[in-house]
Amino acid sequence: MSKNLRITNDKFIDQTSRISFKFDGKTLYGFKGDTLASALLANNIHLVGRSFKYHRPRGIMTCGSEEPNAIVQVGNDASMTEPNTRATEIELYEGLVASSQNCWPSVNFDVGAVNNFFSPLIPAAFYYKTFMWPASFWEKYEYFIRKSAGLGRSPTEPDKDFYDHRYLHCDVLVIGGGISGIIAAKTAAQNNLNTVLIDDKNKLGGTTLFQQNECFKINNTYSSEWLKKEIESLNLLQNLTIKTRTTLAAYHSYNYLLARENLTDHLSLSEKQNKVRQRLWKIRAKKVIISTGAMERPLIFNNNDRPGIILSSSIKKYIDYFGVKCGQKLSLFTNNDSAYETAVSLNKSGVTVNSVIDIRDKTDSLIVRQAERLGIKIYWKHTVVNTSGYKRINSIDIMKLSDDGNEVVGKKFSEDCDCLGISGGWTPRVHLFTQSGGKLKFKDKDNVFLPDKSELEQISIGSCNGDFELDSIIKNSVESINKFLNINNNDYKNLEIVCSKELDKKNIWLLPSDKPLGKTKPFLDFQNDSTASDVKLALREGFKSIEHVKRYTTTGMGTDQGKLSNMHALGIIAETAGVKMGELGTTTFRPPYTPLTFGTIVGRNVGEFFDIIRKTPIHDWHEENKAEFENVGQWKRAWYYPKKNESMHEAVQRESKAARDSAGMLDASTLGKIDIQGSDASEFLNRVYTNAWSKLEIGKCRYGLMLNEDGMVYDDGVTTRLGENHYIMTTTTGGAANVLSKLEDYLQTEWPELDVYLTSVTDQYATVSICGPNSKKILSKVIPDLDLSDKEFPHMSFKNASINNVKCRVMRISFTGEHSYEINIQSSYGKSVWEKCFEAGKEFNITPYGTETMHLLRAEKGFIITGQDTDGTMTPVDLQMDWIISKKKYDFIGKRSLYRSDTIRDDRKQLVGLITDDPKEVLEEGAQIVSETNKQPVEMLGHVTSSYFSPNLNKSIALAVVKNGKKLKGHKMFVPMKNKTINVTITDTVFLDKDNKRLNA
Amino acid sequence: MFLINCPYCGERDQSEFSAGGEAHIIRPKQPTELSDDQWAEFLFMRKNIKGVQLERWNHAHGCRKWFNMVRDTSNDKIHAVYKMGEKPPIK
Ligand SMILES: [Zn+2]
Questions:
Q1: Number of A:B CB contacts under 8 A?
Q2: CATH superfamily of B3-83
């Protein structure tokens, strides 16, 4: 630490506790209370990065969240490293490791800096224009651009930290703990309102906290002293919650806000252990008071980006708060009064202030007079035309401004300095206001956008609302708060306030130089390296909309969203285009206000909590028996059960053969199950399914097809009549939730007169399906007292039964075309019934099979799977399922749509079977089907929807949708693939057991 | 993120609800008697108003009830909610 850059200042910095940290591999020291930026400055380190495009050396420029240059990588651990962090916001802790980004190989020797010498060749949109063509070269360009630009490194390992999400409800949320925010929070809490005050810094108080100047006093003490007492009094308030180190990230409609609370980033590595790192607060506030303050603007002049050029108010904070001198010999450059506060602070701390260069004519405010009294030299109506010094500023060139301010006149002279403070006035932080949907208005006098209309219960107070002077801040804030909260607080009425008043204003968005614009580098967006010349070039090239100029020049597109100089970009565009700034409008500031880590956004929803996993009651058995699983929606379904070294194909062939030769079993628990009861249950089913239900006998099952109102197939499944007014409907696994919602919708909104109640019972029942020629023998062992004769228990019927005194429902239904049963039993008994069936089936080589074999077996029978063979454009007629459409029913969902001119076309895509000429050739699902091979372009007639090698038929089979397919049976078609064309023939969709003999075998 | 006043449960976060499009589109009682154009009018045509719109909402992760809402689509202001079958309280 360079001793001579620190002054004694024990108010905010604990100068007795030394902290060691590493920056770019070098061990340095700072104090408790420092930020990384203040500690670096105290070590005389200004150069912290390289600019994005030209790789110009860049230094710390601010002391807050708007910092464009001091963007560093924190940590070097593969899982904990974090890029794009602002050095001005990082609190110093023992063991902190940080490094510059955006430079290669090092910040002091940077390969990309050669861009700077070629910069006349790198105008706006250079990257777009040059590297666009030929497109195939982009990958090569990108490697070098990324390597030499590099916006930090992502962690390569999973984040080890914990993050939280929590909800917070309050009457009043106050954002920003500066002087007006503190007044607001205190007033609200004192009036029995449940109040929350948040601030992104570690201490409340804003800039008033360290304001110790005779020109700014309240009740005869420094404004900082007065505010200190106010802050202390907050601790006594019961209704007030204060959250420091908490950044408001997003402000949504209905006063829903997201705030990120930083809990451990300021702690040493050992103190961080096992603690929640950051917490995302989801806040719902009845009323919101925005008191986010203002940020200082830079000035736009030639070479205004050198390390050592810092915002004037930041220099003041570094000296008054952190006790750090940003240099030994400073110059200040301003268009307003606030630079004089900095000059006075520096002077009092024993720092040499060369001069203040002020673009205004002589003015005579309290603070200017104070500076003059201290003997500080002021150049009125002058401007800086150039700066020198490569890695650190070492001198500035100064010239007199012409009367109109458009050019410089007289003789150029130089001044040596190691730091230049700049102040271009103040920009209210209206970002959150605009995020919330608020509309801005432009105030010409101050050249600022201010909050205007909002639809929400909110106000903006203090300097974010355009009040920049102490007395008006307090007076107007109190007035607004009283009105907004509908109270009458007189506590601040009779304060005796002294404050310096700004008497003159002058603003020049782009300051003139003695060189023409093309030969200068007045930077606008420091992070994205765009200059005023780039913006003017874009305008010359015909860009008019601010949003287009922004994207073309990348101004305001960095991680800081161009907070610092967006106003200048707007100003220059307005001037050049000859429009008023208020008419030009602003760009939109989007959430988050400052970048959020992914960890904060996902909170605890990581790993197994990322998405819900649904497991059937029989899942453990599948796992024990080495099943491979497939995701079906959130369900884990057994896919196939490989034995020893079996491939998936081998396992599926074995399972499929066993199910038809003897017996197979399937866990069908995932099928959706809806319990339907009520005196109108039959009528309800009549209306939702295409077929008729009134005459279904109790104890019988029926397959149903459900359409959307547009006539397209939506879902299918078997529904069983359990009693006079009681049905159980099954749906597809993936469609369960949507079918229930759809049915509820119709019941509640279209047919409220129906007496019907729907209950999802999917999770309440486990379903064990046994199929194959020996299934009857196996079931008779499991439930001996059940009469399984075809007469008593025919296909498509149901019986109540019990297994070891546990009631169950047995349906004789089949999705494989085999003689088949489904046992439905309370979930908790699912696994034991499964095991019982497996035991009983052992003598018949019962083979558990998964979803892949299920799909193969049903394809052999030509049964559709909605969502695989249908895609929301298939009617039942397209599926050749005309038989399931009731002609007698007056109406059902989708009926009318089946007679629309489009749905009755006979050249629609229709479901057909495909047989390959080579029986061993298995088609790819999704492959296109054409009728000619030597014509280009060729019409694509359809595509393969399901395709398998059938071990039971010993040949390849497929289902497909083909235009006019019904009429093309027997026709030859072609399936062109990458390296060959496969010859196929269109067939019927049923490949096996066309007369359904096996169902009763 | 809206704060929606479910007519059955009270104020809840928008994440508990799902939107169901324009309200008061009554399913024709005798669809078979409609022309293709008339049926298409019911099936496809929606106003998609910029301004005050009557909409259907479902408290999907709550009471699962459907209800109607008067919402200004230009500023997301919810003017009223009302139960299915009731007349819109304001227009
Ligand atoms: Zn509800």
A1: 57
A2: Folate-binding superfamily (3.30.2270.10)
